[in-house]
Structure formats: C-alpha cells, structure tokens
UniProtKB/TrEMBL annotation:
<dbReference type="GO" id="GO:0003824">
    <property type="term" value="F:catalytic activity"/>
</dbReference>
<protein>
    <recommendedName>
        <fullName>Nudix hydrolase domain-containing protein</fullName>
    </recommendedName>
</protein>
<dbReference type="InterPro" id="IPR015797">
    <property type="entry name" value="NUDIX_hydrolase-like_dom_sf"/>
</dbReference>
<dbReference type="InterPro" id="IPR000086">
    <property type="entry name" value="NUDIX_hydrolase_dom"/>
</dbReference>
<feature type="domain" description="Nudix hydrolase">
    <location>
        <begin position="26"/>
        <end position="157"/>
    </location>
</feature>
<dbReference type="Pfam" id="PF00293">
    <property type="entry name" value="NUDIX"/>
</dbReference>
Length: 162
C-alpha cells in the first residue's frame, strides 16, 4: 500500500503512514493545480463518485496527496499527467504551503497553469476524475454561493485569493 508523508505543524517530515490509516491529528501534504485559459475561465474537476473522500465534489483541475519519495513539485507533475494527460507542463508555483484545517489537516501547495484547450481534449483518469469543465469566474462564484456543498471545503480559499 502507498505511504504518504506525515508532517509537523511547520511542514517538516516526521514519518510515513499507509494511505487510509491516518488519525485526525495527522498532518499530510497535498498539491493542487489550478488551470485557467486566456478567456479567464477556470477548469474544475469533479471527483469520481466512487472516491472514499469527497466523492462527486468539484475542486481544482488536478490535486493529489504527496506520497513517500515525492516533493510537492514532483507530485503535481505526476498527478497532472495521470489525471488530465498533461505532459511537460510549465506551471507557476503559487501560494506557499499553507495549512488548511477542516475535516482533514494538511499543507497545500498551489500551482497555476494557463492553457487553451477544450475540456473534451483532456485525457481524464476515470478512477479519479468524473469530468472536467470550464467555468467563467462569475459562473464559478455564483454556483459556489448557490450550492457550496458540491465543492471541496478548500474552494473558499480560492475565492479569498482571487
């Protein structure tokens, strides 16, 4: 089974745990890639309905938990290729590792990419992603205000930053 990196409150590695065996006090690492296009739209991904956590919820185009032997950077490169078929991407590192606390405790490293491609042109990994869709920022915001429960809890941070 895959082991994920457990960190302290300063994001220093303190151990490894098998995925699925975390305690509520464990803090881990997550990377997320926010994709926009030249029209100012944001690409959101809907998590597969069979996912154990947050199934069917909308979130960043790509996201993943940092596994043993990975860095935030290597994780987002791997996840972008696996989840959307993106190779040789030139992303911009965004918000520094920031601790989020809701149901889970983790540090999240955000990355940004501007790409002009139809949603149907992404090669999605069906085990992870139900679908991807472009939203104007107004559509995204209004949908969030109307129905926040269809989004990952961390989505609010996106609106706080942009």
């Amino acid at each position: 089974m895959t082991k994920i990196i457990i960190v302290d409150e300063n994001d220093n590695e303190i151990g490894l745990k098998e995925r699925g065996t975390l305690n509520p006090e464990d803090i881990y690492r997550v990377s997320a890639l926010w994709i926009t296009n030249s029209n100012g739209e944001v690409l959101l991904a809907q998590r597969n309905f069979n996912k154990k956590h947050d199934s069917g919820k909308w979130g960043p185009a790509v996201a993943g938990t940092v596994d043993d032997g990975e860095t935030y950077d290597s994780n987002i490169i791997k996840e972008a290729e696996e989840e959307l078929g993106l190779k040789n991407i030139n992303f911009k590192k965004g918000i520094k590792k920031e601790r989020f606390s809701n149901k889970h405790k983790y540090f999240g490293q955000w990355y940004f990419l501007i790409i002009d491609r139809l949603a149907s042109e992404f090669i999605i990994q069906k085990e992870e992603v139900e679908k991807v869709q472009w939203f104007s920022k107004d559509e995204f915001y209004n949908l969030y205000l109307k129905n926040p429960s269809i989004f990952l809890d961390s989505i609010k941070k996106w609106f706080d930053e942009f």
